[in-house]
Amino acid sequence: MRLEKMRLGLPLVLLLAAGCASTPDFSSQKILHTRYDGNADDLLTAGLGKSGLGLAQPPAVGDARTPTVAELRRRAIHANYRALADMSPAGGYGVLYGPNIDLAGKDTLGEGKVAGDEYLTLFDGATLMVQVPQRFDPKNPCIVSASSSGSRGIYGAIGTAGEWGLKRGCAIAYTDKGTGTGFHDLTTDTVNLITGQRALREKAGNDSIFTATVSDADRARYLREFPNRVAVKHAHSQRNPEKDWGRYTLAAIDFSFYIINSLKDARAGTYTPQNTIVIASSVSNGGYAALAAAEQDTRGLIDGVAVSEPNVSLS
Predict the structure, then answer these.
(1) What pLDDT, in 10s, does the model give residues 136-170?
(2) Within 10 A of 206 (CB to CB), how many other CB atoms are there?
(3) Catalytically annotated residues
(4) 80 with 146: CB under 8 angstroms?
(5) Are 39 and 111 in contact (CB under 8 A)?
């Protein structure tokens, strides 16, 4: 692990893709860092709390044509949390699990908002994110990986793995596995940034989550025959990201070590695989990514795996 000071030249900066290495060096990365106070906004519920997450209606946005970063994040967390959990009290939400349920299984946490810091970066075709709760304990450091299932974006495993780890004061190592929500609208030639916002392909450059490898001439020719088409990262990246799901999960864990070793407040410390518990976790093919990471882990990063219904392809 190279422990170097993070370079956050601006409070909010977009990201530049990193090179591919067995032990990634994040010291030259562009990293987006946001602090959440646990009141108006937070790590787990995006300010919605247990009650807001329980509503079927998505959170409102001020202008649907130009939603803010906070609005997009709030909708992403609401959608992903609800997509993988039974959100009815009869199914257990708010009774057996949910932001309001404490470690003893009791309804004592109110709306369950979690204060802390969130860090985003791009890495070799994948999105990585680390959430560090304010209650991260330097005396008992822990990291839980949370690889998204399916083609979900970076918040895909927030309800299935993120909640468990955040309640225990663990840093959460997220990755979209290189299959996340990158959409290149070929008609408008716009792409997604890591914040979820849309931008012209040329302006986005390397800050795009996904840009189809097609020339302007070929794009125009294709649209004449097949108008109103969208290229999707998981289907059209031509990268076969599945082969790298384990590597991306390990990279998210490496990114977590980089971040927690860069903390300058009461959570600061020197964190290594030897003194930090690391659990690889998720569901479905996010669980597959966790298993693949454990199998590929040659550096002793991962201490244990906790997955549900891993969608594994044997070879």
Answers:
(1) 999 999 999 999 999 999 999 999 999 999 999 99
(2) 11
(3) 284
(4) no
(5) no
